[in-house]
Specification:
Layout lengths: L16 E6 L1 H18 L7 E7 L3 H10 L6 E2 L2 E6 L8 E5 L10 E9 L3 H12 L4 E10 L2 H4 L5 E6 L4 E2 L15 E4 L1 H10 L1
Parallel strand pairs: 2-3, 2-4, 2-6, 6-7, 7-8
Antiparallel strand pairs: 1-10, 4-5, 9-10
Helix pairs in contact: 1-2
The protein binds guanosine-5'-monophosphate and magnesium ion.
Length: 199
């Protein structure tokens, strides 16, 4: 099968999805634009670019972004951040799960995450990487919520600003479901309740 025949831009609605917020074609176009901007900014990085996708939510975004970057020489090192104490109002803590990425010293680090919400993840990773001697640290998120905590968190590259709704798809999950959807959308109320109850 020719690669063009892969149906990766198929926005057929999953039965649990209420509405599509960002269709797959819009994501693809925005990822190309982000990659062009990022690629130009890292022209000087000279083989010392390390991309750090934050698992698991940035799985699809990072996969598409690194393939669209003009740079062909880069390291990719995954990291996982867990958030806890996360009620809507209480302040959250975040911690890095597992080993820290290596080769930080002297490297230009590009953090890639799915969505900017409280900002805890980016603040934690940025300070950790800066302390470990990275030459520079920048961050790219596919989505940013239009809420003060997100809008006040430094981030260099943003795909889309969205309303403060719980979204899934294109890597983002609810109980590890829906990550495979090629678009970003909101969940139907009954699906939220059903999945939540079985979790
Ligand atoms: P922050 O540290 O900015 O609060 O957290 C961002 C993380 O929280 C994201 O990487 C994601 O895992 C999770 N998150 C925040 N908002 C949403 C959302 O609307 N949907 C999903 N599926 N995850 C979210
Ligand atoms: Mg995440």
């Amino acid at each position: 099968m020719a690669p063009e025949a892969l149906r990766i831009h198929d926005d057929r609605l999953h039965e649990d999805i209420e509405k599509v917020l960002v269709p797959s074609a819009a994501i693809a176009e925005r990822v190309r634009a982000l990659a062009a901007a990022i690629g130009a900014d890292y022209e000087h990085a000279d083989g010392r670019l390390t991309v750090v996708p934050v698992m698991t939510g940035s799985l699809l975004f990072a996969a598409d972004l690194v393939r669209a970057l003009p740079q062909r020489r880069m390291r990719i090192q995954l990291t996982t951040v867990s958030s806890y104490g996360g009620t809507a109002t209480a302040s959250r803590g975040s911690s890095i799960v597992g080993a820290l990425p290596k080769h930080l010293e002297g490297h230009h680090i590009l953090i890639v995450d799915d969505i900017l919400d409280s900002g805890g993840t980016l603040r934690l990773l940025r300070s950790e990487f800066e302390q470990r001697g990275a030459a520079s640290v920048r961050a790219s998120v596919l989505l940013r919520k239009r809420i003060p905590s997100a809008l006040s968190t430094p981030v260099e590259y943003v795909g889309f600003d969205i309303d403060d709704e719980f979204v899934v798809g294109y890597g983002l999950d609810y109980d590890d479901l829906y990550r495979n959807l090629p678009y970003v959308g909101t969940l139907r109320r009954d699906a939220l309740a059903r999945v939540g109850a079985s979790a």
